[in-house]
Write a structure and sequence with these properties.
The complex is a heterodimer of chains A (377) and B (201). Chain A has 10 helices and 12 strands. Chain A has 377 residues and is α/β, with parallel strands linked by helices. In chain A, the strands form 3 sheets. In chain A, strands 1-4-8-5-9-10-11-12 form an 8-stranded mixed beta sheet, sandwiched between helices. The radius of gyration of chain A is 20 Å and the shape is globular. Chain B has a single domain, classed as Rossmann fold. In chain B, helix 3 links the parallel strand 1 and strand 2. Chain B has 201 residues and is of the alpha/beta class. The longest helix of chain B has 11 residues. Chain B is globular, with a radius of gyration of 16 Å. Chain B contains 8 helices and 8 strands; from the N terminus they run ααβαβαββαβααββαβ. The chains are: A alpha/beta (377), B alpha/beta (201).
Chain lengths: 377, 201
């Protein structure tokens, strides 16, 4: 049966930017490309555009599908949110998904050719920040003729970009939807990222980040990184319920093959990811997460950092998310309240941990739909 | 706050509350239900307001009503709000559902310059009669049976005013109602609901 709420078959587009981009680190990218997709129609007033920012391992393919023969398999990562009659209703909104700078799905990243050497950037690709991503997205907004986004939204690292939009250009984002996010990483969050990075960097196939020229991939490192990450995306209860101590062979075999089902699951997730993602991009994205801290320049005072924001905010967290727990969203809400900004906050009951933001739990999607419906176009 | 209680939330008191609220002031509404009062104050008084609501269905109703709503648990206090953050902190027909009554009243007057509270009066004559007949009262403003009531504090107008005196809370204004009409004579006996504007001493 055809899904009439899907945006259907979609194809990515590429925008080329020839002006150099000065990064927060001081490094300069001489020019870059961004791959993006759009769904719905930009209205005459250009007032109905919504930017969807992706998280650590996401990309520009937010909704619809790429292969008509496999619509489910090639569906976008937030397909349950974007479409006709869905919370982000494409009958009403013009939705843009973009692969961030440094990505591995078509936008300029470590795999791209370094014009200075004619070889892939590899480890020479500069480190990026959420601020840099938003600066690059701003160029795309200009190119698409979108002076002001009706909303910028995202989950996790995507939520950080939405928040950053309201700080970098308060006039250009009327609303921000910051979901399962945090105003900065905790020491524990950074610790998990560092384990992931060490897993990649200590893989003999890493070659200091120049593995492309050696025809190699640090597959084992990337797999390990993903396995660690994946544990933090799920809740302990959910893992217990789904896998418990379930044995593959019904008995202990006293070897290092898969014995417990959770081992099989994690290995599978790691393998799948290692086949589809680039290790250098993973390193860059985890560093961008670590660096994000808008309050840093304000002596740790988040309210002072958010003082220039003007947007209306919708902040949401999930009860079983321990990676970016509800308390982290409270920090954002608290700082917004101190600035007297319009904000609504939902704490959604959902068992799926951090990954809850990708599910379509009724209260979650209903709340998103209600908030988005209230945005005046 | 439960839905049943919210449908009981008297619209009749909205106008009286609105009379007390200065135009363009800031308002925090605790247990704001579907946000109808905030929406009204926003429309008629141009207030800047936020509601606090734990119930997900009410949260949704608030979002649909276009008011700011925060899904915080009031039993954890008002730690997310700064001192003097609001001109008014309101709590309509919910005070009897909160366990930490005194800390909450103190918090309301820390965060707000003034507090506006309303509650069902357990001293209302028909309630006394029910007790005299040997049963807990069930009425329009106390629509629950003893075993399914969300109410955890049972008090009268006289009890509340005694508490305010003890806690050095100023009674700035009081209105009492029965059948949606203002009650002037012996409100502790004749009023179903009491509405107060409170201040600091």
């Amino acid at each position: 049966m055809r899904d009439t709420s899907s945006v259907g078959l979609v194809a990515p587009q590429t925008a080329r930017f020839d002006d150099a981009l000065v990064l927060k680190s001081g490094d300069v990218l001489p020019g870059f490309e961004l791959v993006y997709e759009t769904y719905g129609t930009l209205n005459a007033a250009r007032s109905n555009a919504v930017l969807v920012c992706h998280a650590l391992s996401g990309n520009h393919h937010v909704a619809g599908f790429h292969d008509p023969a496999h619509p489910q398999k090639t569906a976008g990562w937030w397909d349950n949110l974007v479409g006709v009659g869905k919370p982000l209703d494409t009958d009403r909104f013009f939705v843009v998904g973009v692969n961030n700078l440094g990505g591995c799905h078509g936008s300029t990243g470590p795999r791209s050719l370094n014009p200075a050497t004619g070889k892939p950037y590899g480890a020479d690709f500069p480190l990026l920040t959420v601020e840099d991503w938003v600066a690059a997205q701003m160029r795309l907004s200009d190119r698409l003729g979108i002076a002001t986004w009706a909303a910028v939204m995202g989950g996790s690292l995507g939520g950080m970009q939405a928040l950053q939009w309201t700080l970098a250009c308060p006039e250009r984002a009327r609303h921000a939807l910051v979901i399962a996010s945090a105003p900065k990483l905790s020491a524990q969050n950074i610790a998990f990222n560092e384990v992931a990075r060490q897993a990649i960097r200590s893989d003999p196939e890493f070659y200091g980040g120049h593995y492309y020229e050696h025809g190699a991939t640090p597959r084992r490192g990337l797999k390990l990184a993903r396995m660690v990450g994946h544990i933090t995306y799920l809740s302990g209860d959910q893992m217990a319920e789904k896998f418990g101590r379930q044995l593959r062979h019904g008995q202990h075999r006293f070897n290092y093959e898969v014995e417990f089902e959770i081992e099989s699951y994690l290995r599978h997730q790691g393998d799948k990811f290692a086949d589809a993602f680039d290790a250098n991009t993973y390193l860059i994205a985890t560093k961008a997460l670590d660096y994000f801290d808008p309050a840093f320049a304000y002596g740790g005072n988040l309210a002072a950092a958010l003082a220039r924001a003007k947007a209306g905010f919708f902040v949401a967290s999930f009860t079983t998310d321990w990676r970016f727990a509800p308390e982290r969203s409270h920090e954002i809400v608290h700082a917004l309240l101190q600035n007297g900004l319009n904000v609504s906050y939902a704490e959604i009951e959902c068992a799926a941990g951090h990954d809850s933001f990708l599910l379509d739990t009724p209260h979650y999607h209903q709340a998103l739909a209600a908030y988005l419906k209230g945005i005046v176009l | 706050m439960s839905n049943a209680l919210n449908t009981m939330r008297g619209r009749f008191d909205f106008e009286h509350i609105a009379d007390w609220i200065r135009p363009a002031s800031s308002v925090l509404d605790l247990g704001c239900g579907d946000g109808a009062l905030l929406a009204l104050l926003k429309r008629d008084k141009g207030i800047r307001g936020y509601g606090v609501e734990l119930d997900p269905d009410n949260l949704l109703a608030c979002l649909k009503n276009g008011v700011n709503v925060l899904q915080f648990d009031l039993e954890h206090g008002l730690a997310d709000f700064e001192d003097d953050a609001f001109d008014y902190v309101m709590m309509s027909l919910s005070l009897q559902t909160v366990r930490h009554t005194v800390p909450l009243l103190r918090e309301m007057l820390r965060v707000g310059h003034e507090a506006v509270v309303s509650f069902p009066n357990f001293g209302y004559k028909p309630h006394r009669e029910a007790i005299a007949e040997g049963h807990m009262p069930v009425s329009r403003h106390l629509p629950y049976q003893w075993f399914n009531s969300p109410n955890v504090r049972f008090f009268t107008i006289a009890d509340f005013e005694a508490l305010c005196t003890h806690e050095q809370i100023r009674l700035l204004e009081r209105l009492a109602f029965a059948d949606g009409e203002v009650v002037r004579e012996d409100p502790n006996l004749n009023a179903e609901v009491a509405l107060y504007r409170l201040g600091r001493i």
